[in-house]
Every structure is written in C-alpha cells, then in structure tokens.
C-alpha cells in the first residue's frame, strides 16, 4: 500500500490534466484567487453546464505555489451516499479505508498541512458537505476549501461566487468578425469548432450564424461545446435550424465525462432531480414567462398547490439552486431563467398536461396589467408604466399571441392589441405595433367599435413612422366605420389623428383647426385624456406655424395639464417650448427645454420624443455655428429614428429645418468631415448622445476650423494619431493597443476624414502643431 506521505509528494494524484484549452473567464479567475486569499471557504455556484468545475480546477492549478502541501480534488458527482463523504475525502489523500472513524482520521492527518481542497459537485450531498467542511475548517488552520455547487453551503465565513454564462453579443452588439472573439462564448465555440474542423475561422459569411447559435445557447459552455461537436454532421445553418429542439440535437458529448454532462438533457435532468417536488412544479409553471417576471405575476400563474408562503419558499429554492436568477432595477425585483432552462421547464409542463391552463393564467394576468395601465396612464406613474411595459414586452407579446392563436377570443385580442399599442407602442418598435394590428384586423373583420379603435391606433402608428399616405387610408376607414356605428369617442380620435396627419404634412393651419374640432368632440364625450392630448398637439401645430399666440398657448396648456401631472406629456410640452423659441429665433433659451424633453424622454423610454429632441438640438447647434456638433447630433437623431422604425422623409414638418441645418454644416465642414461626424453621432449609445447633447459639450467651434481641433477626434483617435505621428504602421498600432489591424485601419481612416487629410504625413504634421507634448 502506498503511504499517505508518498501520496502527498505526487502531483499526478491531485488535479487532472486539462485535455482541451481553457477559454476566457479572466475576471472570474482573478476573483476566485482574490476570494481564496481572504476567505477559507469559497463556493462557486451556478446552473449545471455553466463551467463551475472547469473554472475551479483551472483556478486551483494556478494556486499550487501558494499551498506547500498541494491542491487536491474530491469529485463528488457520483457519490451515492452522503454518509460515505468522509471516506471519499479520506481516499483522496490515500488514507486507509478501514480507519473506522474517517473524519477523525482525516482531521488528524490534515492538522499540520497547508493545502487547498476542491470539493466538486456538492449539490446532491449538500448537507453532508456543509457539515464536513465546517468540521475541517474549524480544526485545520492551514486548510482552504474551494467548492462547486448549484447552491451555497451556507456556512459562516463562506464567500459565494456566482458563475454566469459566457458573454455573447446582445442584439446589435458586435458587427464584424474581428470584434467577436472578445466575447468568451464566441471564443469557446471557435476553439471547439477548430478541434472538429481545423480550418474553421470566423469570416463575413459565418459570423452572424455563430453569434446567433451562441445566443440561442445562452452562452452555456456545455451547450456550446456539444453544439460545436455537431459540426461533424451539420453545417452552421443546419445547427441553428435544429436548436429549436436542442435537447434532441445535443445528445453526443465527451464519453469520458460523467453521464450527467454527456448530453444537455441529462444535465437538466440532474438539476431537476435535485429540486423538491414543489420546486419542480413551480419551475415548470414559471416556464410560461419569457423575458422574466415579477413575484406578483409568478403568484398569478402558479395555481394549485401554492399560496403566498409556499411560492416564496419554492421560488427562493430555485434561486438558490441557480435555476432562476434575480435582479433588481428601480426598486423592483425581477426573476428570469436562461432560455435553455425555460425550455426544459416547458417540456415538463407539457408532460404534466398543464400547459394550456397555465398559459391562460399568464394571458389573464397581462390583460389585467394592460387594463390597469390604461386607467393610470395619465398621471404621475406614467414613466414607471413606460418602463414596465418595456420590461414586460416579451410577455405581452406572448399573451397577445395566445389570444390570437390558441384562445379563440379574437375580439379580446383586438382590444388587447389596441390598448397595448396605445401604451406600449407595440412593445419594441412602431413597425411591430403595426404588424400586430394588421394581423388582428385581418383576423377580426366584424364592423365593431373595437375595430374602429384599432384602425385609428394603426393610423397613428403609421404617422409616427412617417408613412402619412398609409395613415390616411386607415383613418378614412376608421372614420367611415365610426360614422356607421355612431361611435362618437372613436370619431373624436379619428379627427384628432387626421389633424396630426396635417401637421406631419406641414399643413399647419388645417392642423390647428382639426385639433380644435377634436378637443370639442373629446369634451362632449367626457374623455379628458383625449382632450389633453389634442390640446398638446394643437400647441405643436401653432409652434411650427410660427403662430404669434404659440407662447401663450404653451402656458395655457401647461395649466390644463397641471391637475394631472404626467411627466412624458409635460416633456412633450417642453419640446414644444423649444420649437417655439427656435422658430421665433430665441435660440439661446431653446436648448434648456429641449434638453429637459430629451432627458425625460430617455428616462421614460419614449423614443419618439428622444428623436425629436435630439433633432431640435442639432438645429440649434447648426444655427449657433457649432457645425461638427450639429453633424453628430443629426447622426444621433437619425439613429434614434431608426431604432423605432420611422423615416424623416415622411415628416415634412421636420424635414425643412433638418435640410437647412445639414446644408449649412456641410458647407462649412466639407462632405468628408460632415459624414465622419454624422457617422460618429449615429454610433453613439443613447446615454453618450445625451451627454454630448448637453449645452457646452463640446465648446463652440469657429467657422472653417471645426474639423481642425482636438474636439474633432475621440480619445481613441487622438491616441492613434499620436502613434501615427511616431511613424507606427497600422499593424504596429494594432499590436500596441491590442486591437485588430482592421480596427486600427478604420480609426486612421476616420482621422483622415475628420481632419480633411489624404496622407498619414499630414496627421503627423497636425499632431506636431496641435499636440506638441504627444508621444514624449
């Protein structure tokens, strides 16, 4: 028999060698090492397949030098009996199997050692692991424990590190192959794909497919590795098509791995079996949510077997076991599941025969939510409702889809879709809202008041898209139906949005008269919300018309709105104030109300107002001679319009001022510098654009020199200009800044365009003149 002492001297008995390369996780590795420096028990938690074991082993291997007596691994995944845990750990150190009292023998053996013990896969013997770790840590001063588990051991002094999925680009996140491998999920897929196809590389043809595959897999490392292995049999496009049924596709893995890690199904089965019966039932029922949920919604769909206490306990258990994640934003707690986990739960829900019943409860909850929002929309909670609708967009779509396809309540679907598009603008974009309304209008042709309302709402969304011809067709059909039915409330809205069409077409006098008619009609039917909205839109028409009474109308309308203060409505009025000042050339005082409208619109998620305010600030910048600033703001405004699916070409009331501002800025900057500034503004995030739009950022530029100062270049571009001045090539710049050569080339091109140069030598001369300290 080999002695324990000799075992301690043999590193081959401690940690397994890595067969495949370890990819990414630099931040997590550093955090594990920092945590073990300050805590004696560190537990990595996370759902199965997320890479806890691999992270723990890689981190432990890097810590060998810190532990004179070594780093040791106890693999517990296949341990059948919690009572055998002490024997299992004793065997790791080569202690005799017949010790009789393994825990006592273990503590005596470790008493004078300084080592790290990795306890891998503790979840199914959690209580036994907690008791053993507590005993060892309290008696062995030189011991550190690194555990992996679905949930914490919950011991005093334990430091818990949640292990999340690998990073993958979000929608619109990465657009070129050269930028993708900075995402660990993409890097892992590429690494494993090369093991199957040695010549595999990201390129213009496949990078969209790779990104979408990794997104669909939620960045779960095991799922990514199993999918990459399927490249032996399928193309990327075929893999993507088959991921809808991922549990059937991902059935071939590493035959040397534990059985629970050889297929995605086995992995989820393992996690499911670790849950209590109540947790399993709740997991399945919560799978009807998409995009997350709040506690009240979970209570509404949980149904039989759950009350206020049991659902909280079961939900807390699912959070502890890493099945459900928890976040908090603006004081509201929200829960969510990875799509892979949610789909597994939906399969269990279908097996239990509960899918339709739980989907109905889901639909009823969100129909009630929309009705509540409608009642509270005009008032102080308007911003909160905007944010909530944005968060619940996926669930609202799912509920509406259920109404249309599975419930048979198509009149309900018509009313639901109409209310949703009034308040949620279709949840993500104007185009989506129109698609929903087109769909329900096609399915529910009966001449009812609900149809008349859906028609005018669809016409309103078409107006916001800049599609006035389509809007007028829809509004005309709504007018005819409202007249036929004698529906005065619907007719008031038809008149209101027909006047809005006049405003958008630049027919300001007709718009003022039309809004006055709509105000009268809303008042007659007792609709204060419609009356306020028409009054606000009448002010807009007066402002663009340059009406001498516009300023007084703004003040009167503000008084009308004051009894029921609504932040978003008030912000639109601030934008009207900015327009009125701009039209009468009181430009210095116009930027304040425009910025106020911009900030409130962004805070509320009112993207149409964000686009309007950004556009107005661009006009003000051009009029003030800040031409590069104007170019950037025009680009940011266009990006905001594109985000909601609207086109300037259909908005005559904005187009004239836009064209004047662009023409003036181009004439001063030149086409190349204008386009560079415009593109830079379009690439800004919303928060960056708002910060840039604030008055005084940047300082006013003198005509003819707008593209010749440091403010023309970003911080990164200034850095690259300095390197060009030192004589570095594009490849040398890329190496110095750890970026792709193509990225360096793009930056140099932008610098040349912004400064109006054609050669790198000109950049060097400019740097010497304007930044003499650079490069010293």
Task: Report on this structure.
InterPro entries: HTH_77, P-loop_NTPase, Sig_transdc_resp-reg_C-effctor, TPR-like_helical_dom_sf, Tscrpt_reg_LuxR_C, WH-like_DNA-bd_sf. It comes from Labedaea rhizosphaerae. One of its GO terms (molecular function) is DNA binding. One of its GO terms (biological process) is regulation of DNA-templated transcription. With 776 residues, this protein is mainly α. The chain contains 39 helices and seven strands. The strands form two sheets. Strands 2-3-4-1-5 form a five-stranded parallel sheet, sandwiched between helices. It has a two-stranded antiparallel ribbon with strand order 6-7. A hairpin with a 2-residue loop joins strand 6 and strand 7 (332-336). Helix 2 (26-38) crosses helix 3 and helix 31 packs across helix 33. The longest helix is centred in the middle third of the chain and has 22 residues, at 355-376.
User: Which CATH top level class of the largest domain fits?
Assistant: Mainly Alpha
How many separate domains make up the residues? Answer: 6
Strand order of the largest sheet: 2-3-4-1-5
Strand content: under 5%
Q: Mind telling me the C-alpha Rg?
A: 32 Å
Mean pLDDT: 82
What fraction, in percent, of the residue positions are helical?
55-70%
Low-confidence stretches: 1-13, 253-257, 698-711
**How many helices does DSSP assign?**
39
Question: What's the main sheet like?
Answer: 5 strands, parallel
Task: Assign the CATH topology of the largest domain.
Answer: Serine Threonine Protein Phosphatase 5, Tetratricopeptide repeat
Distance between the termini: 68 Å
Give me the CATH superfamily of the largest domain: Tetratricopeptide repeat domain
Helix-strand category: mainly alpha
Report the principal-axis shape: globular
How many beta strands in the DSSP annotation?
Answer: 7
CATH-scheme architecture of the largest domain: Alpha Horseshoe
